Structures are given as C-alpha cells and as structure tokens.
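Continuing the series of single-chain predictions for the mutant panel. This is the parent chain; the variants come on the following pages.
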Amino acid sequence: MQKTFTGLYTAIITPFKKDGSFDQNSFKEIIDQQISAGVDGIVVLGTTGESPTVSTKEHDEIIAFAVDYIDGKVVVIAGTGSNSTAEAIHHSLSAQKAGADGLLQVNPYYNKPTQKGLYEHFKAVADAVNIPIMLYNIEGRTGVNLETSTLLKLAEHPNIVAVKEASGNLEQMKEVIEKTPDDFAVLVGDDGLMFEFGKLGGDGLVSVASNIFPSEMKGFVENCLSGDVSEAETFQKKYESFFGACFIETNPQPIKTLMAESGFCEEVFRLPMVTMEDDNKAKLMEVFETVK
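Parent structure:
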C-alpha cells in the first residue's frame, strides 16, 4: 500500500503585522514560494508557526485561510495538537471541516502523560475525525517520549498513518522505521538529521530550513530518499552549519528572523517568543551569507 505522507513538508512560519495581528498578505507570499518550489506539503500552525500563542479563534481561521488559498495545489497538514484532548479534537474537527488533508498531533506538552495517557489521547483524536493523522514525537518540547511500543499500537488505527520523529534519537528512529507497518510513513523533524535518516530508510522531512530554502531542501530530500548519497552528502556538508544556526535560539526565532531579513514578513513574534539577541543574530546572518 502507498504511504500517505512522504517527501518534503515545510513547517511554515506564521507572519504577524507590526501590531501583532495575522498578516494574510505575507502568508500568501510565503505559501506561493513553497508551491513554486514544489514542496510536497505545508504544515500550518506547527511549533514553527507559533501555534501556542494564537487564540482558539485565530487557530481555526488561519488553517481555513491556508486551505482555501492553497486550493489543493499541495498537501495541507494542520497542526491541531494540544495538551488538552478536548481542545485537540475541537481544532481537528475544525481543520477537517475546512478541508485540510491531514493533521499533525503533538505529544501533550507539560502534562507529561504516561504511555497509556498518550495512547488514549491520540486514539480519542483519531476516533473523532476521518482524515489522516501524523503523530509528532518531540520529547524536548513536551517532556515525554512516545515509546515505539505505544506508537505501534497507535499505528493500528486506520486514521493514524505517519509520525514526525523529532526525538533526535537515530536508534529510536531506526526501530520505528523497522517495526511500523509498510504503509506507515516515518518522517524526521530535524533538518540536520535528514541525511542519516534517509540512509535508514525514512520517508521524508518536516522542515524548518525549507521556509527560506524550499527548492534547495526539496532537491536534498529527493536525493536522500532516492539513495543519491553523493549529492545528498555534498548538500549536507554545505548546509550543516546553517541547520545548526536555525536553532541557535529557540525555534522559530532564527528562521523567522531570516524570513524577515529576506523581506517575507515583519520581525514580529508573540510573547514569550522574542527578537533574537544581537550576537546570536549576527552569527545566524554570518552563516546564512555562506549558503544563500
């Protein structure tokens, strides 16, 4: 059976105007660039999209706006996770109604649920909708790891078809790739690990770097997935420092700063996200200049 989500998915930033409101025009420009570059899909309101600081109303409206504007040109995966199961279900149903192609469901953060709690949370969301779900395992942001044994149980649900693995643990990723069903997609959530992840047999990347380098990252992911190790390794070596610089401060501060410097949006964040420290910004721009 064919896997539902493979290739390059850009976790796009959410641009704000100087007054802090959602910037529709900048959002359109960012989306247009992604579509022109041939990305396989766009993740709206993931962590990179500052999802924790948009209101419930904005959350539903931004996803609906993105789905309407993209109009089927690429896959839209809506970030609808929450540390409240009821809220995750609300946003998921809203995204489904808006026409999203799939949902991204992060581990419930701060609560630190048990593996049983994780299973019941994700199952409740999956039971409530009838569109595909990509789970999002990121212990560093949520305080809890989705263990492979729990993931395998969840993979039995017909609506849970993929996982974004951002544990940073290549051994765990290898186990997930080997043990999940043949039609279950395993994507990595760390640009810097895509090269090694591809060699393990992974299916794609949910990328931060592709906000600013969509066509370049598209080619990189294609080379990684096709087994063109030489081309992929050359790219990895060139961009390795840049991948690291994108996390010199908390994501999405560096990538949004680069997008602002490149004219795509205002350099506006919602607290507690803030503008970068001057020395870090200088380091980021220095690395950016070497690859752009």
